[in-house]
Design a protein that fits this description.
Layout lengths: L1 H29 L4 H27 L7 H17 L13 E3 L3 E3 L1 H16 L8 H22 L3 H15 L8 H21 L2 H10 L3 H10 L10 H13 L24 H34 L3 H25 L17 H22 L2
Antiparallel strand pairs: 1-2
Helix pairs in contact: 1-2, 1-11, 1-13, 2-13, 3-4, 4-5, 4-6, 4-12, 4-13, 5-6, 6-12, 10-11, 11-12, 11-13, 12-13
Length: 376
């Protein structure tokens, strides 16, 4: 298990370095012809990477699992205040999700909410409290619902709300306390209903109904994902350009910095659409490299979650695995047209200090649980 721990550390460092290089390249599309802008972005991304590595090392050393429960609830209230405060800093890309500190630096509290709920689940759902198990389960469910509701309704950030909901939902299915079996059975039924719902929504009759009777930003994204070429001059334009970038990259790519479409065809080439830039510049081989790095991050975590006998470790490890996997699926699925675009970043690769810090903290939490579970 020590080998897996070290593999995660090496993969995390390499992913941050390579991701930062790709962000700098993608930022050329945002600052075309403006060398001063690009210089600022290089400084910002370098600062994010350096701070992220320091925070990562710090959380590798801090045994968060030993913290008292009231400290977790204190952090919960602090993040809650941050989520609400975002509403007063204006919209960015249609969402009220950021707190701004000057023109360059921002904080996105919803990213830290995801990691906090993973740690809180490990603390709240893991201890067998007998008859109080169901109360703790309900408390956690309400805590998750409040976060998801604020992110969805107040911040209008559907992508982050979906990610947080899926993470919390999955972790709530892990504890095996007998008092929770009925609630968990209902949740499993909910999963089956969701699968059927997705199949219905993806069906041609439902798509045809939306074309005639619905008119909203999210519906437009869904319709564009279903057939972007029907909306090639409107909502499907960016998705088509993403597919063109994939084809343009070929096996080895056009070379670092040589992406064409990042200059005019993507609204966020450094964030939501960073994968098309990566593939266009480094080709399929570059994409495979990032897949390998993600595998080096997630396979040891999954392996440890299966082997550990400590419930709290299992919850945290599977929570971190779900966190990375959901982001990965939503981002790659969105830019490839498999699912509607959600604006979810590719963790540790897309730009954004908050997502980078949160993902590195999550990895450190997982590695701490690995040390804790398999310490001799």
């Amino acid at each position: 298990m020590l080998i897996g721990y070290r593999i995660i550390t090496v993969a995390a460092i390499l992913t941050v370095v390579l991701g930062s290089l790709m962000v700098v390249s993608a930022e050329m599309g945002n600052g075309a012809g403006d060398t001063q802008y690009l210089t600022k972005m290089i400084i910002r991304q370098s600062a994010y990477a350096l701070i992220g590595m320091i925070v990562y090392a710090l959380f590798l050393w801090i045994p968060v699992y030993r913290f008292r429960t009231y400290l977790f609830w204190g952090a919960y209230l602090a993040v809650l205040a941050g989520l609400i405060a975002c509403r007063f800093f204006g919209q960015t890309n249609g969402a009220y999700a950021w707190i701004r500190f000057g023109p360059l630096f921002t904080i996105q509290p919803s990213e830290f909410a995801k990691v906090l709920m993973i740690a809180l689940a490990g603390k709240l759902l893991s201890v067998d409290r007998g008859e109080k198990n169901l109360d703790c389960f309900k408390t956690y469910a309400w805590a998750a619902a409040i976060y998801c509701g604020i992110i969805l309704v107040v911040q209008r950030d559907l992508g982050s709300a979906v990610v947080l909901f899926v993470i919390c939902y999955c972790m709530m299915l892990i504890p095996g306390h007998k008092e929770l079996r009925k609630a968990q059975a209902i949740m499993f039924v909910g999963i089956l209903i969701a699968i059927v719902g997705v199949a219905v929504v993806m069906s041609p009759p439902f798509t045809a109904f939306l074309k005639k009777h619905a008119d909203s930003y999210m519906v437009a994204r869904f319709l564009a994902a279903a057939d972007p070429f029907l909306y090639q001059y409107d909502n499907g334009y960016h998705l088509i350009m993403s597919l063109v970038s994939f084809a343009n990259g070929g096996l080895t790519g056009l070379g670092y910095g040589n992406s064409i479409h990042k200059y005019m065809n993507f609204p966020n080439p450094d964030n939501d659409f960073i994968l098309p830039v990566i593939v266009e510049e480094t080709g399929i081989l570059g994409f495979v490299l990032f897949l390998i790095l993600y595998g080096c991050l997630l396979i040891p975590i999954m392996n440890a979650s299966f082997r550990t006998e400590r419930l709290s470790s299992k919850i945290v490890l599977l929570g971190v695995f779900t966190y990375f996997t959901v982001h990965f699926i939503l981002n790659i699925g969105g830019v490839s047209g498999l699912i509607p675009l959600t604006g979810v970043p590719l963790l540790m690769v897309s730009s954004g200090g908050s997502s980078l810090l949160a993902s590195l903290i999550a990895l450190a939490l997982a590695q701490n649980e690995m040390k804790r579970s398999f310490r001799k």
